[in-house]
Amino acid sequence: MKPTVLVIDDEKTFRIVAEEALSAEGFAVATASNGQAGLAAWQREPCDLVILDRHLPDTDGIAILETMTRESRERGVDTLVVVATAYADVASAVQALKLGAFDYLSKPLQLPEFLVTMRKAIEAKRLRAQVRQLTGRTQAAMGDLVVGASAAMQKVIDMVDKVAEAPDTTVLIQGESGTGKELIADLIARRTVGRKDGPFVEINCASVPENLLESELFGYERGAFTDAKAQKRGLFEEADGGTLLLDEVGEMPMATQAKLLKVLEEMTFRRLGGTRDLSVNVRIVAATNKELADEVERGAFRLDLYHRLDVFHIRVPSLHERPEDILPLATHFLQRFAARMRKPAARFAPETERLLLAYDYPGNVRELRNVIERAVILSTKDVIEADCIVLSGPARAGRSGASLPAPLAFFALELDPAGKPPDLEGLERAYIARLLAFAGGNRTAVARLLGVSYPTIAKKIADYGLG
Ligand SMILES: Nc1ncnc2c1ncn2[C@@H]1O[C@H](COP(=O)(O)OP(=O)(O)OP(=O)(O)O)[C@@H](O)[C@H]1O
Ligand SMILES: [Mg+2]
User: Fold this and answer.
1) Could you tell which of 365, 370, 371 is best to mutate to test the pocket of ligand 1, judged by most ligand atoms within 8 Å of the CB?
2) Mean of the pLDDT values across residues 91-102?
3) What is the value of pTM for the model shown?
4) 228-245: average pLDDT
5) Residue 88 — pLDDT band, cuts 50, 70, 90?
6) Interval between CA 63 and ligand 1 midpoint (Å)
7) CATH of domain 4-140
8) Whose Cα sits closest to atom 10 in ligand 1?
9) What's the pLDDT at 284?
């Protein structure tokens, strides 16, 4: 597409010369002979570039510049304005730059200089678009900000920071499915001194067929087997200088485990069919949703490899162990999905928050994410109502012993066995105690459920001796 330029100038010769020169340069040119007409044309259809005369018969060029700068920002368009001033009118040139002009030109026009300025402007615009796109992309790639308000997750993040300072130590991350193990591995890779700019390579040991796992990890030489038409580098080599995540390491076949152990011990290996020892500098992070000790017991995992991997252990807690994270995570996902689906910036209705808090999330953070994604799709309003929340299992049951969410269940309070009706304070105390148990001790959640502030609920808990 041709770059578009609008020339706003009352001088006819200027318009003609500029139009000819710019058309020859490949611009699509429009012109206007006064400020109002020019502004109206731009408002109808914003162009890439405006050449704006400082002195116009109807309005001051500076006023037009100000309007364009403001409206560009409001409308999210990127128009560069070049102000043309009389030769030696340095003061207004400086003023124009301060008000957001990209550059200025002095009149009478010097054609070569004029064209250089125009090319520079178009290049600047292209770069700006590119930067915007790239920042969007890195944000998407790194976007996975780790939400961790709870003390339990703060502990995990502290562990990440500790091990980030030990760039060669092997890390074993253990946690139920969907708790965020990959995210934690990624955080380790991004925070480790001396490795954060290196590669982060991951392989899922459960999803690669057994006979391919070794060639994926170690690579092969040409002719190592029938299909090996050319040499292939393995993931250990790809990860050189960085971090290698062995995901679902508990699923690794025994034969591969033996090879891996040897590599970890020596940090040298050979490609399949190779005769040369290769050495690499890689930090290994292994992740598993199994208890590896149990796997060892069962005879499905090598004890020596287990010890070799379990040097620095990070356990990512299940979501039901850290209910304080539910609403922050839900809000994080809500913002992400609402933006992605171009829905209005939304929030949760109080009833929705109650539902979200009352559920147990056997699928952990991944399940919560899916619940919110579905809710954003279903919702037609900017408040996410409870009927958009589709949970696949019963609300918090079994694990905490509380059976909810029927609202009346809250009122099944344990009252004085003598049958004396409780006074208001006694009722309040019992009710708060009930909610505290329901929310797994999470005071923030109780405050939200009751619609009061955190300090209010903290004080009541202290006053009633429930803390
Ligand atoms: N603390 C968190 N903050 C933000 N997003 C999170 C957090 N924890 C998990 N997620 C998101 O939840 C989803 C599941 O996380 P992840 O894939 O890391 O889990 P996992 O433990 O590796 O699961 P599995 O064992 O099934 O492979 C991802 O989309 C991840 O971005
Ligand atoms: Mg995973």
Assistant:
1) 365
2) 86
3) 0.59
4) 87
5) low
6) 52
7) 3.40.50.2300
8) 180
9) 97
pLDDT band at 377 (very low <50, low <70, confident <90, very high): confident
Ligand nearest to the CA of 141: 1
Ligand 2: centre distance to CA 184 (Å) = 10
The architecture in CATH of the region 320-403 reads Orthogonal Bundle (1.10)
Q: How far is the CA of 180 from the centre of ligand 1 (A)?
A: 3
CB 238 within 8 A of CB 284: no
Query: Residues with beta carbon inside 6 Å of ligand 1?
Result: 144, 146-148, 175, 177-183, 289, 329, 332, 365-366, 369
Task: Please determine, for residue 127, whether its predicted confidence score (pLDDT) is greater than 60.
Answer: yes
Domain spanning 151-317, CATH class:
alpha beta
Alpha helices in 348-392 (DSSP H): 350-358, 364-378
DSSP 232-273: EE-HHHHTTTSEEEEETGGG--HHHHHHHHHHHHHSEE--BT
CATH 3.40.50.2300, the chain: domain bounds: 4-140
Q: Where in the chain is the domain with CATH 1.10.10?
A: 406-467
Q: Which two structure tokens, joined as six digits, stand for 169? A: 């130590």
Ligand closest to Cα of 203 equals 2
User: pLDDT tens digits, residue range 251-282?
Assistant: 999 989 999 999 998 888 888 888 888 889 99
Which one, of 204, 206, 208, lies nearest residue 185 by Cα?
204
Residues 102 and 81: beta-carbon distance below 8 Å: yes
Architecture of domain 406-467: Orthogonal Bundle (1.10)
Every domain of the chain with CATH number 1.10.8.60 lies at 320-403
Ligand 1 atom closest to the CA of 173, numbered from 1: 21
Ligand number nearest to the C-alpha of 181: 1
Strands 4-8 and 347-348, sheet pairing: unpaired
